[in-house]
Specification:
- The chain is α/β, with parallel strands linked by helices.
- It folds into 2 domains: 2-65, no CATH class; 70-279, 3-Layer(aba) Sandwich (Leucine Aminopeptidase, subunit E, domain 1), CATH 3.40.220.
- The protein is built from 9 helices and 10 strands.
- It has helices spanning 2-8, 11-39, 47-65, 116-125, 129-139, 191-208, 232-247, 262-265, 270-279; strands at residues 70-74, 79-85, 94-100, 147-148, 156-157, 163-168, 171-181, 187-188, 214-217, 255-260.
- The longest helix is centred in the first third of the chain and has 29 residues, at 11-39.
- It holds the Pfam family ThsA_Macro.
């Protein structure tokens, strides 16, 4: 209910409501003129007619402008995108976990416990860092090491864009390296680095997910330190554009689910995001 109240207070809602309402008024006026010309007179007029037209127009405007879940289905490519508020790790599908190019896992000295990766360790592996490290090492055993760095924790660098695919029950975990770690264990990324990383991710998903849905968090905050450059609203658009470009080249998955933390979701212009998703349909 609070989310609905937020959407109803936005200028986008009221602008779209007014546009649709007055469009309905115009259509009704034309229909009434045609009817009056054909049959000669109307069964009712004056205030009853005005009230009826107003009720129909307002009802149509509300129906067209009323906020709905942020979801769009596409025919070309055959896929769907949904933006949801919630918990990434409660999603019943494949999950993307952002990480750094050294694939460090140790918390709290290297990886923050409240980060997506820190939560993955605790909630999916019960804090067993050795088991997670083993699975990541197995997933990376054929990936080329691109360099090394002298720091606490892991020192092999696999490069931005590397994906370690882990199997977890009936779904997959995609550990996506979209930031670089420096000697002080500070992760940093760039918009270009995230774009290249997402391209690598979609390629891996296309190859391994067999079309099943994928959930991804908002990328750009946290360890990448890009929240001032790419806030949540722009990050979602960034992810969506990357996914759609990839999907028009090859099948990636049946559904992309972008999972947003409650604190970020409450600040989104959700009607604008729905309009953005709708604009990507082929004309």
């Amino acid at each position: 209910m609070r989310d609905l109240g937020h959407d109803l207070r936005t200028w986008r809602f009221w602008r779209w409501f007014l546009v649709q309402t007055f469009s309905a008024v115009g259509v009704l006026a034309i229909l009434l003129e045609v009817t009056n010309f054909v049959i000669g007179s109307l069964p009712f007029e004056g205030w009853p007619l005005a009230i009826g037209m107003a009720a129909i127009s307002i009802g149509y405007g509300l129906m067209r402008a009323w906020p709905r879940p942020i979801r769009q289905e596409y025919e070309a490519p055959k896929t769907a995108i949904e933006v949801v508020k919630g918990d990434l790790f409660s999603q019943d599908c494949n999950i993307v976990v952002g990480t750094c190019d050294t694939f460090d896992t140790s918390t709290p000295n290297v990886i923050a416990q409240n980060s997506v990766q820190g939560q993955a360790l605790e909630r999916l592996y019960g804090g067993d860092v050795n088991r997670l490290d083993t699975e990541i090492a197995n997933a990376l055993h054929e990936k080329p090491i691109q360099g090394s760095i002298a720091k606490m924790g892991k020192t092999d660098k696999y490069g931005v864009g590397t994906v370690a695919t882990l199997h977890k029950a009936s779904y997959r975990l995609y550990f996506l390296a979209y930031s670089e770690m420096n000697q002080n264990n500070e992760a940093q990324s760039t918009p270009d680095g995230i774009w290249r990383s997402l391209a690598s991710l979609w390629d891996e998903v296309s190859r391994t997910a067999n079309g099943t849905p994928v959930a991804i968090p908002v990328i750009g905050g946290g360890q990448s330190r890009l929240s001032q450059i790419i806030p949540a609203q722009d990050s979602i658009r960034f992810i969506v554009m990357s996914f759609m470009f990839a999907s028009r080249t090859r099948k990636v998955c049946d559904e992309l689910r972008i999972v947003v933390r409650a604190s970020d979701f409450d600040r989104l212009d959700r009607l604008e995001l729905q309009a953005f998703l709708s604009s990507l349909r082929p004309s």
